[in-house]
């Protein structure tokens, strides 16, 4: 199975699980999902794949599900609940970073087999960690704000796709810009930095487009 086909299947599975947890556990399920997805995304992002002729990180799909979850919260319960979810995800991400940094300070036992693997995943460069935290907070807060503004301007259900795609695609552009500036600016030649930025956003743009049908499904739950 090619990476491209597997990526599409993986995206469908991820977004289906968001709608399932919302259908089963309601608003609380989305809060749990956002906390979990921020952690998993920062683990998966360490793996790169070749897809559509581009080199991309694997964490973009699960990271995109956090935007779907906040859009569902914004749509069904208002921007204050969506903001609370953003802060929950941010606190979860910081907690994971701090706890794993401390865990790596322990001297492993002679027969330990996990330390090097954990160091590869969690001993990230300070600029990358800072870029990830800032990009998440800035882009998610902007997503909540612009979704609420679009809902005021286009409140009818027929414009749900505009609210979803408009907020997420613009927010993902901001996310990619903040992350690439903080994490990589000055580390690569300008043309390479631009390629990394464009590749990152193209993948996130595709993820944002794929989540729209799942928002329509989720809107029907818990009326």
Automatic annotation (TrEMBL):
Give UniProt keywords alphabetically.
Answer: Cell membrane, Membrane, Transmembrane, Transmembrane helix, Transport
Question: Cellular component per GO?
Answer: plasma membrane
- Principal localization? membrane
Does the UniProt entry include the keyword Membrane? yes
Q: Does the keyword Transmembrane apply?
A: yes
According to its UniProt record, where is this protein located?
Cell membrane
Topology with respect to the bilayer: Multi-pass membrane protein
The protein's matches in InterPro entries, at most eight in alphabetical order, are given as: YhhQ
Any Pfam family the entry gives: Vut_1
Q: Which GO terms describe its molecular function?
A: transmembrane transporter activity
Spans through the membrane? 6-22, 29-45, 51-73, 85-108, 128-148, 169-186, 198-218
Report the superkingdom from the record.
Bacteria
Q: Which family does it belong to?
A: Belongs to the vitamin uptake transporter (VUT/ECF) (TC 2.A.88) family. Q precursor transporter subfamily.
State the protein's purpose: Involved in the import of queuosine (Q) precursors, required for Q precursor salvage.
Q: What is this protein called?
A: Probable queuosine precursor transporter
Annotated organism of origin? Pontibacillus litoralis JSM 072002
């Amino acid at each position: 199975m090619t990476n491209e086909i597997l990526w599409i299947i993986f995206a469908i599975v991820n977004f289906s699980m968001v709608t399932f947890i919302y259908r089963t556990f309601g608003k609380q399920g989305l809060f749990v999902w956002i906390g979990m997805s921020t952690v998993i995304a920062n683990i998966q992002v360490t793996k790169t794949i070749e897809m559509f002729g581009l080199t991309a990180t694997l964490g973009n799909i699960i990271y995109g599900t956090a935007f779907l979850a906040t859009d569902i919260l914004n749509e069904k319960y208002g921007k204050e609940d969506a903001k609370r979810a953003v802060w929950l995800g941010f606190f979860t991400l910081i907690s994971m970073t701090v706890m794993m940094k401390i865990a790596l300070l322990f001297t492993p036992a002679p027969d330990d087999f996990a330390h090097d693997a954990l160091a590869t995943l969690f001993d990230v460069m300070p600029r990358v960690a800072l870029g990830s935290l800032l990009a998440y907070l800035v882009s998610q807060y902007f997503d909540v704000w612009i979704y609420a503004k679009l809902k005021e301007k286009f409140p009818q259900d027929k414009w749900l796709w505009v609210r979803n795609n408009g907020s997420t695609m613009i927010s993902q552009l901001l996310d990619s810009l903040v992350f690439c500036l903080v994490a990589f600016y000055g580390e690569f030649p300008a043309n390479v930095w631009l390629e990394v930025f464009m590749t990152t956003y193209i993948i996130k743009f595709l993820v944002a487009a794929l989540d729209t049908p799942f928002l329509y499904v989720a809107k029907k739950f818990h009326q």
